[in-house]
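Final report, closing paragraph on structural work. Over the funding period we assembled a curated collection of sequence-structure pairs, and we close with a single example.
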Amino acid sequence: MTQPTDNRRVGHRPLLPTALLRTALDLADGGVPVLPLRAGKVPFGNCPACTKNACGGRPNMKTPGPCTCPAPCHAWSAATTDPDVINSPTWDRPWREAAAVAYHPGGAGLTVVDLDHPAAVTWATRTLPPTQTVATTRGEHWIYRGAMRSMNGVRDGVDIKSTMAYARWLGPGTGTITELPQVVCSLAVQEPATVRPQPKVLAVPAPVGGGACRHRTPAYLQRGIAMAEKRITEARDGIHTTVYRTFLAVLSTHGRCGCLTEPHVARLFTAAQAKGETLRHCTDAWTNARTRLGL
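Its predicted structure, as stored:
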């Protein structure tokens, strides 16, 4: 990733030339998809037409531009290199209220190894090949050329941000960017170290009871949970939708007879969090599935 230049192409009327907007246009000019972030390092919420994916969400999650909406909706998938979009009136308010610029590493053909504390940086220095590094508030970003699956918590204090993820732009950093090594790719297929189910994961209701049990053997339920885990784990896109629909399928089959227990729910939450879902998203998806089924 190179230092932004002053060679910008702006198709619409010029907005107030804030530093963040200038940075975003420079990055986009270099082929890096960008989007504004609010305070707290979070994307701007969906517009009213897209709230709770009322618009139908992304037609697919492989390209920017979640739907026909011109607003910076749907988080990372809104990231774009189009200066006409970045500098459009619809993005005016977000840029004026933005606290940072984010970019979609996978969309730029990059992978960011996010090291969240000094111990993680020490591990990377001893384990990973040198590449471009950028200092963060608590650690460093190590940036490699090449895209891969994103995953949080691949080990203590280490997240991988590439496809279907965003990272803050914190400057060009130091060093020369190098090719994505196998040692980084292999991290995404290991069991994540920080997404193990916590006690609060199990606060969602599990057994419902009151219905006739159709499960002749415990193996029937175990196969169902295993199939649900596999469906979530093997999802390549549409993770939010896949998690919700999987939770819905499990509850529709096993939710009324009381066979579904908290350990079963924990397994589903763990699989979803391993794909990058947050605890809040898991809890919301579970609650929404129960509500839809009247449980």
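The chain is about 30% helix and 15% strand. The longest helix spans residues 218-233. We thank the funder for supporting this effort.
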